[in-house]
Each structure stands twice: as C-alpha cells, then as structure tokens.
Write a structure and sequence with these properties.
Distance between the termini: 73 Å
Number of strands: 7
Protein name: GreA/GreB family elongation factor
Number of domains: 2
Strand content: 15-25%
CATH architecture of the largest domain: Roll
Helix content: 25-40%
Keywords: Elongation factor, Protein biosynthesis
CATH class of the largest domain: Alpha Beta
Shape: elongated
CATH superfamily of the largest domain: Transcription elongation factor, GreA/GreB, C-terminal domain
Organism: Sphingomonas rhizophila
Oligomer: single chain
GO molecular function: DNA binding; RNA polymerase binding; translation elongation factor activity
Number of helices: 3
Pfam family, one: GreA_GreB
Amino acid sequence: MSVAFRRESDDEHLEPTFELPIPPGPNLVTARGLAQIQERHDAIEAVLAGELSEEERKKVLRDARYWRQRLASAQVAPAADGKRVAFGTRVTFIRDGAERTVELVGHDEADPGADRIAFTAPLARALMGAEVGEEVEFAGSDEPLEVVAIAMSADEAR
C-alpha cells in the first residue's frame, strides 16, 4: 500500500490548538482586577489537582499557562488623583448628546457590558490625560467627546 493512503492517527487531522494570546504591554491591574486574576488562577489550579482525562488536562493546562502568566506579571497601578483621566478612574463624557460613564481597567478585568474598558482600548486611549471640561477628538467624529466628570473608581476609593 502506498504511503499516501495510510493514516497514522486521527490527531494529525485535528485543528491546531494555539496558546491564549497575552495582550502586549504591561499587565496593569486594579486591586479588584488582581483579586479576579487570583480567583481564576486558583480555580484552574484546583481543577488541575483533580482527576482529568488527558484531553481535558491539555485544555485546562492551556488556561492555566495563561492565568499563571497573568498573575505573575500583574502590576497594581498606583491610585489616580482623579484630576485627569487615568488608569483606574471612572470618566463621564458626552458623545453625540448622550452621557456615558466608563471605568478604565486592565485587560482581564475589562467588561464592556459593565462599562469597564481596557486602558488600551481606543476610547480609553483617546480619553487618557483629559480633564473635566476638555473636549477630545475620537474616531474621526465631527463632534468631540466632552469630559464632564472624573472620579476614582469604587475599587480605588477604598
């Protein structure tokens, strides 16, 4: 039989599994973000300590490598003073006549549905360093964003 018609194993036909991507740059976190990373890390380590099939272990180890790295590289950012938009602040702005408040947090803590965005997101980068009353250009819009309030995040105010 020709080598072309032999099948060594089913594994060679599976899609490759890649590592979870680590966001570039520093791993800045709030105190709440560090606690969340620690919880995820601990939960995955607990799963690894249990009985797993070889395939399940591979999947869990992939997640474990990610969370181990995120925990090891986490840097709690210094508390912002609240005078300028910075990491760990809540900023209220007006865009197209609508008011919105977002909190600038680390990658693993970001949850746009809860109005927490990563400090590297385009909106966060546009707002960074602005003061109350300042207008900021964003996404080529004809109307700039107007910063109306800056506050320490609830996490940082403790």
